[in-house]
Amino acid sequence: MKCFERLVLAHLKNCLPPTLDPYQFAYRSNRSTEDAVSTALHSVLTHLDNNNTYARMLFVDFSSAFNSVIPSKLNTKLGDLGFNTSLRHWITNRPQYVRSGHTCSTTITLNTGVPQGCVLSPFLYSLFTHDCRPVHGSNTIIKFADDTVVIGLISNNDDTAYREEVQHLAAWCADNNLLLNTSKTKELIMDFRRERGSTHNPIHINGMAVERVSSFKFLGTHITEDLSWSTNTSSLVKKAHQRLFFLRTLKRHHLSSAVLMNFYRCVIESILTSSFSVWYGNCSVTDRKALQRVVKTAQRITRCPLPAIEDVQRKRCLQRAHGILKDSSHPAHRLFTLLPSGRRFRSLRTRTSRLRNSFFPRAVSLLNSTPRTLNSVSLSLSLPLSLRPLLTPPFPLHITSHPSSPHHSSWSHTHISHPSVLLYYSMFISPQ
């Protein structure tokens, strides 16, 4: 049954409509917790780059979210997404029983919750909440399964839209049988204004005030109200130091260098680089040195050269940027815009170092600093949407750029050595 459920899961993912909420990052290809956190922070940092602004982040906690889904409502929402009746009936009306040894309980069909122990359950929950979207343009709702954050971008001390958004979310939860746990729901307020007009009044949900905190761990990343990363870095370094003990133990038992290297990459480096592209750019010098000390310690233990933390971050940042470039449905895809030359990306406008050192501006800068070759990604972005699927030719593509006179078009700035490649692309792009 598990194998069949995985086949159904793959089918459901392939049948998802393009109108699905792009800010639901769970259980979708080319999406991760890193994307969710970086998208949320970019929204905040971009807004804080303006005068007389601040941001509020409400981290929502649901009580038994997966067990609160009403199958009849899920059936209706799956129908709205275009899934056929027989598939919806199989998903929402599955009989279940409990077996203990050779004894089985009576078979029943649950009227609450997604199927227990089912591969589909987390994905079904994300589809159940696909219509939970902001009603005001100044707000954003970022979701990763049941981890949800409401971001309010506030200007001129007017937080009316944000408060209405929170009340709308509470009403939506009541209509969909989801219980908001107000005692575990927390709020962060990022306000860097020198002269604050007034104190920030707390948010109330169902008559209970939401606690304001100075730091919150969202999807494994510690976010603080001053947007510093010492808390997050200290937590990661502490975990890495604990695992260095096991690396030393393996060394004492005379394991090979290859095994030690694999252990380091899987157990230690994976911790140090958790959501790496989100926070490393704004790390302090002290935090970066603390991270590098862990790498140097591991290098002494393994007696093998290890890449510097700065080099790992650069590589990860470029990989993440290329992944977003290839996915036009990614909510951050619009941030990577080619200039008319087709060889460089438009730099994001920044006023503060907080935004300048964050992931997306740094990613654009790194892409522009790489060798200026016209790759398939940039060529795809220069094509109309209807022609992009035809971009991949049946032969290897090798295109290099060379200087040209200013009056030539962007297509004439490239030199293609293979005549068959030139013939293929001349069908889609021609000089002006």
Automatic annotation (TrEMBL):
Domain of life per record: Eukaryota
GO MF, one example: methyltransferase activity
InterPro entries given in the database record: AlkB_hom8_N (IPR015095), DNA/RNA_pol_sf (IPR043502), RT_dom (IPR000477)
Span of domain Reverse transcriptase: 1-223
PROSITE patterns linked: RT_POL
Protein name: Reverse transcriptase domain-containing protein
